[in-house]
Design a protein that fits this description.
Blueprint (H helix, E strand, L loop, with lengths): L1 H24 L10 E2 L9 E8 L5 E7 L2 E6 L8 E3 L3 E8 L1 E6 L5 E6 L4 E11 L2 E9 L4 E10 L66
Parallel strand pairs: 1-6, 2-9, 4-7
Antiparallel strand pairs: 2-6, 3-4, 3-5, 7-8, 9-10, 10-11
Length: about 220
């Protein structure tokens, strides 16, 4: 009996450990940083600004369906004629003053009141864990803060920000620089002896006497 209880206890402990390990391995989704912001367009009469910030890792498209109603689609849907809201960007659009309702895939409508000449904000934030998450919309019109789930249980591809590995720079020694210089000619003193002075030329010696003697003889 005791052995049976011990075996059951060991199984329960193993299940608890496995469950704690699986929860520890789940990575909670992080918000995308806001990197871009666009200038608001000019307003006409009876219009206000609706500023939408996308903190999700996916792009969305905002489409006005009718007065006071709008839909939010995942991804870029240019054929709808809507406004694309890239990941990490804030887009401000001019809309008619009204209490707007923004609807996603869940069917829930996020309300936000837009007043003439003023700005109301909507923030799109992901929630959940990596690979299985949803999208929450949060509105703030200066009077009330509301939130609704616009997308639920969809798979994201990029939901976790991992720090980039440090860049490794390998410094290789630079090749030697060869500077071509002209040859240097050094005039060294000559070691040859100076030339001897030339001797005066002498006539060739002749043993014959070329002297002449004129003897007219004296008469006795």
């Amino acid at each position: 009996m005791k052995r049976g209880l011990l075996a059951v206890g060991a199984i329960l402990i193993a299940i608890c450990v496995a469950g704690s390990g699986s929860s520890a391995s789940a990575v909670e989704v992080r918000l995308a940083p806001l990197r871009q912001s666009y200038a608001p367009p000019p307003l006409r009469s009876k219009q206000g600004w609706l500023s939408i910030s996308n903190r999700d890792w996916e792009d969305y498209t905002f489409v006005e369906s009718k007065k006071g109603r709008a839909s939010l689609f995942r991804g870029r849907q240019p054929y709808t004629g809507g406004v694309v809201i890239p990941s990490g960007a804030t887009i401000t659009i001019a809309v008619e003053k009204d209490t707007w309702e923004i609807q996603g895939e869940t069917g829930d409508r996020l309300k936000v009141k837009v007043r003439e000449g003023r700005t109301s904000t909507v923030t799109l934030e992901p929630y959940g864990y990596a690979g299985q998450t949803g999208l929450r919309g949060i509105s703030n019109d200066g009077e009330r803060v509301r939130d609704e789930i616009l997308f639920e249980a969809y798979v994201q591809q990029q939901v976790v920000v991992r720090p980039a590995p440090p860049t490794v720079i390998v410094e290789r020694p630079a090749p030697p620089v060869v500077i071509a210089r002209p040859p240097v000619i050094v005039n060294r003193p000559s070691h040859r002896p100076p030339p001897r002075p030339s001797r005066p030329s002498s006539r060739p010696h002749n043993d014959k006497d070329w002297g002449f003697s004129f003897n007219f003889g004296s008469r006795r």
